[in-house]
Write a structure and sequence with these properties.
The complex is a heterodimer of chains A (about 425) and B (about 240). Chain A is an alpha+beta fold and about 425 residues long. Helix content of chain A is about 55%, strand content about 20%. Chain A folds into 2 domains: about 200 residues, no CATH class; about 110 residues, no CATH class. In chain A, α1 crosses α11, α2 crosses α11 and α9 runs parallel beside α12. Chain A is elongated, with a radius of gyration of 34 Å. Chain B is of the alpha/beta class and about 240 residues long. Chain B has a single domain, classed as P-loop containing nucleotide triphosphate hydrolases (Rossmann fold). Chain B is globular and about 45 Å long. Classes of the chains: A alpha+beta (about 425), B alpha/beta (about 240). Chains A and B meet through α1, α10, α11 and α13 of A and α2 and α3 of B. The structure holds adenosine-5'-triphosphate and magnesium ion. The site of adenosine-5'-triphosphate (ATP) has 12 residues of chain B, from β1, β2 and α1. Chain A: This is ABC transporter permease. Chain A: One of its GO terms (molecular function) is transmembrane transporter activity. Chain A: Belongs to the ABC-4 integral membrane protein family.
Chain lengths: ~425, ~240
């Protein structure tokens, strides 16, 4: 393998037949180039969609209540279903639920600071909400468990609220009036992937106490620890049946209890991309096989052309193994180098596109929706492709090499 | 050195069989200079190929240096050829994309001799054959005589016991033919067995023993002493009838 003489023999023949070598290599380079572009595009698409999901925790689930539409245990339809604080403790204790946050809706709330005021949405929550919705804190902190226990009058405001009410004044530590009740600002946040940051977050216990919510809750945001679609569906079922029993509604009643399972959607979408990826590999491998067949064909012609030379080599002492090595290594060399060029050009092009996308998108790439993100190919895939090429070269060279080894010197050397 | 005993060889030609050698008995001693003659298709090349282990025989036995040559793997045959035999062909059979020195050095490559060493040796042999200035030339830049001398250098470099030459002068003019024969004679004088196939009587007359094949059998063997008579007969043959 690392016999310099053998390589010199091979390079000598390649140098003698540049055009033939180029044509052979081109088909392989083209195959790999296309494979890399296809894989890169597939990855870009899949990464883009995945990143849209990632703005919230992938394993997030939202649960809300409504009115019953199916009669149940003698109860009529149209009965409102309502969560309370004990339901929060219940959902937190269910297996498969990682974190949970309850929410109490306050309707429109008026925020004012000094002379400035405006209507914004108030989200009342537990600290766990941040795990579900992945808020990014620009300043200060999020609601914590002490806030909940002590029903502190604190609030985390969205960036837009901060800018509208406080302008350039630091908001942290200031008091903002919410429906005329003063709340201390403890944090400013943005929601990644959203262009509007007009929400404010306050402890759910404080909201219930001050705005006469009693112990009522309107919905839950939870994260679950299901890995597969089946697991996450099981958890969903468990939550539904638990509440159906406790709050007395039919399990199939979708409007009594609404659920949105992000993981389920995520997994289903990723499955589609998995299928697309497999499809891309099939096409790519097909292109590659065409390349290999091309190499194999050309090598066969090469062997035919070199019949006499191989005959001479054998007459003066070349063993069949050394003849096989000669042809096989030439084939592997051509496919590997050509394939590598295709690999570099293909990944280079995709990297270039990625670079330009990042450049032109700039800030905006972090906000808003993206369809195409990081359309590059894994290093591992590239390594696998290289190994594949060497194997491909060996396969392409095998039949021609066998043919060469079976050349009989007396036939090859007979004068026409 | 060489001992052939009732050698038979036939070629399959589709459904029919062509019986080329029909029982050859022949002994050649170390250091002999032998020529094989006979009409076209009489089996001269076939016999030479069997001697050179390029082809198998169907029946009989072939002993080379006391060893029975039969049922050998291709690998073993290749090694034995490399060590024992040097080939010279009518059409030279040099590798076209290698220069004279590389062509001469090739048998040593298959012996695993290092590049540097084998190139030095190749130059030595080219020098012996008066081709040193042509070492870097490609075969298509050389005359027939020069090419045949390169081929002879290549045959000699592995220090073989036997040189087998199938019509080595067939493609050369008379003067060059005689030069090549002179070289072969010198090789023979250092103790190497030389066996050539030829059609030309004057070439055959320069050897010590002529084996005449006819119809797959040995028709006659003319030995050293009788050669003068052969020369006489041959000169009569040349006279117009
Ligand atoms: N590989 C082969 N397959 C089939 N037939 C063959 C083969 N090699 C030789 N022959 C046949 O065997 C016969 C003897 O061939 P060979 O080459 O030994 O003759 P030759 O005496 O060397 O003739 P020439 O003087 O023309 O070279 C010929 O009829 C030839 O056609
Ligand atoms: Mg012949």
């Amino acid at each position: 393998m690392f016999d310099i003489d053998k390589w010199q023999e091979i390079f000598a023949t390649i140098k003698k037949n540049k055009m033939r070598t180029f044509l052979t290599g081109f088909s392989v380079a083209w195959g790999i180039f296309m494979l890399m572009i296809l894989l890169g595009s597939g990855n870009g698409l899949s990464n883009g969609v995945a990143s849209n999901f990632m703005n919230d925790a992938v394993n997030a689930m939202w649960i809300w209540t409504g009115e019953t539409t199916i009669p149940h245990q003698g109860l009529k339809t149209g009965r409102p279903v309502q969560f309370h604080n004990d339901d929060y403790d219940l959902i937190k204790s269910l297996s498969g639920v990682e974190t949970a946050s309850g929410r109490y809706y306050m309707g429109n709330t008026r925020y004012s600071y000094g002379k400035e005021s405006g209507e914004y949405t108030t989200v009342t929550c537990h600290p766990e909400l941040n795990t579900v919705e992945n808020m990014e804190l620009l300043e200060g902190r999020f609601i914590n468990s002490v806030d909940i226990v002590e029903t502190r009058k604190v609030v985390v405001i969205g960036k837009d609220i901060k800018e509208a009410l406080f302008k350039d004044i630091p908001a942290l530590g200031e008091y903002v009036n919410i429906n005329k009740v003063p709340f201390k600002v403890v944090g400013v946040c943005i929601e990644p992937g959203s262009t509007r940051n007009r929400n404010a977050y306050m402890p759910v216990s404080t909201a219930q106490k001050i705005f006469s919510g009693g112990n009522r809750l309107h919905n839950f945001a939870v994260t679950i620890n299901g890995q597969t679609l089946e697991e996450s569906q099981q958890i969903e079922e468990r939550i539904r049946s638990t509440f159906a029993r406790k709050l007395r509604f039919d399990e199939k009643d979708e409007s009594a209890l609404g659920m949105y399972n992000k993981l389920e959607n995520y997994i289903q979408t990723m499955r589609i991309f998995q299928a697309i990826k497999i499809f891309i590999w099939i096409i790519g491998i097909g292109t590659l096989i065409a390349g290999i067949v091309g190499v194999s064909n050309i090598m066969l012609i090469v062997v035919k052309e070199r019949t006499k030379e191989i005959g001479i080599r054998k007459a003066i002492g070349a063993s069949p193994a050394s003849v096989i090595g000669l042809i096989l290594l030439e084939s592997i060399l051509i496919t590997t180098i050509a394939g590598y060029i295709g690999l570099v050009l293909g990944t280079g092009l995709m990297e270039g596109i990625n670079y330009m996308m990042v450049q032109s998108a700039g800030e905006a790439a972090q906000q808003g929706e993206t369809v195409f993100l990081n359309p590059t190919v894994d290093f591992n895939v590239a390594v696998a492709a290289t190994l594949l090429l060497i194997v491909a070269g060996a396969i392409a060279g095998y039949i021609p090499a066998k043919r060469a080894a079976s050349i009989k010197p007396i036939v090859a050397l007979r004068d026409e | 050195m060489i001992k052939l005993n009732n050698i038979h060889k036939s070629y399959e030609m589709g459904s029919s069989k062509l019986h080329v050698l029909k029982g050859i008995d022949l002994e050649i001693e170390q250091g002999e200079f032998v020529s094989i003659m006979g009409s076209s298709g009489s089996g001269k090349s076939t016999l030479l190929n069997i001697l050179g282990m390029l082809d198998n025989y169907d029946e009989g036995s072939y002993h080379l240096a006391g060893k029975l040559i039969a049922n050998m793997s291709e690998k073993k045959a290749a090694r034995l050829r490399n060590e024992m035999v040097g080939f010279v062909f009518q059409s030279f059979n040099l590798i076209s994309f290698k220069n004279a020195m590389e062509n001469v050095a090739l048998p040593l490559y298959y012996q695993g001799v290092s590049r540097k060493k084998r190139n030095v040796m190749a130059m030595e042999y080219l020098d012996k054959l008066g081709l040193k200035p042509w070492a870097e030339h490609m075969p298509n830049e050389m005359s027939g005589g020069q090419k045949q001398r390169v081929a002879i250098a290549r045959a000699l470099i592995s220090k073989p016991k036997i040189i087998l030459a199938d019509e080595p002068t067939g493609a050369l003019d008379t003067t060059t033919s005689y030069e090549v024969m002179e070289i072969l004679k010198e090789i023979n004088e250092i103790g190497i067995t030389v066996i050539i196939v030829t059609h030309e009587h004057d070439i055959a007359a320069m050897t010590q023993k002529i084996v005449r094949l006819k119809d797959g059998r040995i028709h006659e063997v003319i030995r050293n002493g009788e050669l003068s008579e052969f020369r006489y007969k041959y000169s009569k043959e040349l006279q117009p009838a």
